[in-house]
Structures are given as C-alpha cells and as structure tokens.
Amino acid sequence: MDQPHLISGSVLRNAGYRSFAASRVFSSLSFQAITVAMGWMIYDQTHSAFALGFVGFCQFLPMMLLTFVVGHVADRFDRRRIGLVCQIIEALTSVALAIAVWQHWVTPAVILSAVAILGAATAFERPTMAALLPNVVGPALLQKAVATSTSMMQTALIIGPSLGGLLYGLSPIAPFIMAAVLFTVASINVASIRIERRQAAREPVTLSSVFAGVSFIKGKPLMLGTISLDLFAVLLGGATALLPMFARDILHAGPWGLGLLRAAPAVGALSMSIVLARSPLQADVGKKMLTAVFIFGVATVVFALSSNIALSILALLVVGAADTVSVVVRSSLVQLLTPDAMRGRVNAVNSLFIGTSNQLGEFESGMLAGVLGPVATGIVGGVGTIVVVLLWMRLFPELTKVKTLQG
Length: 407
What we know:
Elements: H1 9-12, H2 15-46, H3 49-76, H4 79-102, H5 108-136, H6 142-170, H7 174-191, H8 207-210, H9 212-218, H10 221-237, H11 243-250, H12 255-278, H13 285-305, H14 309-337, H15 343-372, H16 374-395, H17 398-401
C-alpha cells in the first residue's frame, strides 16, 4: 500500500506516470518556447499592448467555445488518444509557423490564427490529461503525483521561455522547429502511457450530462470557492501578457531579458513544487492556499513598481512559488472530490476557469495597459488579487476549514 510519507521517487517508479509526466513536460516546453517567440514577433511588428492582449484572447476563445464538448469527449473516449491527436496538431502548427517565418509570411493575423489553433488543441489536451492522471496513480499518491508533475512542468517553464528567447535571438525560425520536434516526442509518450485504473463506463450524451460538470462544481462550495479564487486572482494579478512591454520599454532588455522574465515565475514554482513533492501539505491547507494567493498579489505589485531587472525577477520568483501552492491544493481537491465518470467534464470546466484567468487575464491586462500603461495595470491587478482573497474568506468560509488533502 502507498504511504503518504514516501518521497516523490515512488511516483516515478510507475512506468505509466513517467510517460504521462514526460508527455506533459515536452508539450509544455514546446508551447512556452513558441509563445515567447510569437509574443516578441507580434509586439515587434505592432508595438501595441492591445495586440498582446489579443494573443491571450485568441487562446481563450476556443477554450470557451469548446469547454462542454471537451468534457464529454474526455469522459467518453480514450484520454490517451485525445492527448495524442492534440499534440500532433500542435506539432503541425509549429511546422506551419516555421515555414511562414522562413518564407516571410508572418503577420499579426498569421500569428493570431496560429494562437487560436494552439488554443483549440490546448482546450482538449489540458483537461483530458488532468482527468487521466487518477487513472495512472492511486489516491494516496495523488498529491505527490500532482506536485511532482508540477515540478517537472515548471522545469519546462524555466527552460522553455529561456530557450525560446535564446533561439529566437539566433534565428526566428529556430523556436518553431524545436517545438515541432518536441511536440512529436510528447505524442509518442502519451501513446505509451499504461493505465492502472480503467476509465469509468461511458454515459449517454444528453443535455443534462453535457452540463453535468457545471452542476457538480456548483453543488460543492469548497470546489467552487477554490477554482473561482484562482480565476479571479490570476485574472486580476497576471502580468504575463505585459512582459514584452516591461522587458523592452521599462527594463530595457532584449529577447533574452523577456526569456528571463518569463522563466522567473517557473523557477519559483519549481522550487516550491519540489518542496511540496517531498513534504506534502499536511495541515491547514486551506489557510495556506489563501495566504499564498495574498502573497501572489503583493509580489505582483512589487513587480509592477520595479525598474530594476534583478528586483523584477525576484518578484516573479515569489509570484511563481505562491501560485504553485494554490495550484497543488486546487488540483488535488478537484481530483479527490470528483468521481472518475465526471472527471473529464469537471476538469474541462476547471480548465475553462484556468484559461479565463490566464488567457482572458492577458486580454484584460493588454486592454487596460493600453489605457493606463503597464505599471498602473500591474498595481491595480495586484491590489485586486489581495481584495479577492479577503472577500473569498467571507464568501467561502469552507476554504479556511480545509485541513488535509488525503484521499
């Protein structure tokens, strides 16, 4: 029987989990690398905060439109095959972008179209892979599995932006070629995942079953509070979309500086996820999550006010570390509170919330920065995050009462 105190190495002895983690790492590495390249290209061509905002919007729109389809697909079909198809589409999109750069066909419209295609593929891939994890490891190791895969993905988030910025500096085509190769490697790994726990029997498609994920979350105030806290905190406090502006106009750094800024939150997240993989949260996890989101807001304000790249990187390190505590608690609660037959639909709704906070947050930041400028936008977002934490403590008192994440 799995023991809660086992180190993360016990998770890695599971062959299916190794394939699962490798697929997510290579996919994330590729996505982050080309995201940096696309962000730099569109800002270099337009010098517009609004254009940066539309990059986030074009990622969010497919997710919003496909959420309920995605959930039912993930609950009715082999989740490994869905992940495989998504990663092949992402690889082909990377190849198309490489050809477009090579032939000088790249325009803002081309970039935004590619972002929309990647957004649609991601809309299927992320919730499906999240729903797959409990079929690979048991409940006793779930928190460790989440923390371990988070640490691996954060490593990709460190390497991906830095490598994307470096390769783009050497040749604009290089990040897209690399991404195409690594998306292909990810697809090979997802196809080789071994399942230990079979997916639940398929439920007939009805209007009620399609929207069952929403009803399920609505009926569990703890889950709703946890997911919505992350939504509003990151929606307000996310500064990722504005990093090209901070790198170029405020910190006066080039693509390498953008790569460092994009990697900094991942370095903080990696450090925290390693800690959580070795020493899982044991007590008062709800209060710790709320505290972490509060710190996330404070660090966002510090970043917005900074004109020194070292201080900016330090603030983003704290942002990443604080966010990881919230991610691990939220992910573990969603998986533990959801029966397998519902995981695809619940994770699809959860992914929509995450996408809303990330991609729609980038759109909101870009639009607001076009009016107020990046510094004021960052300050407003960070303060807004702090206010959300204080408000959620009153609206969802269940959050402060969560003690452990044991299945």
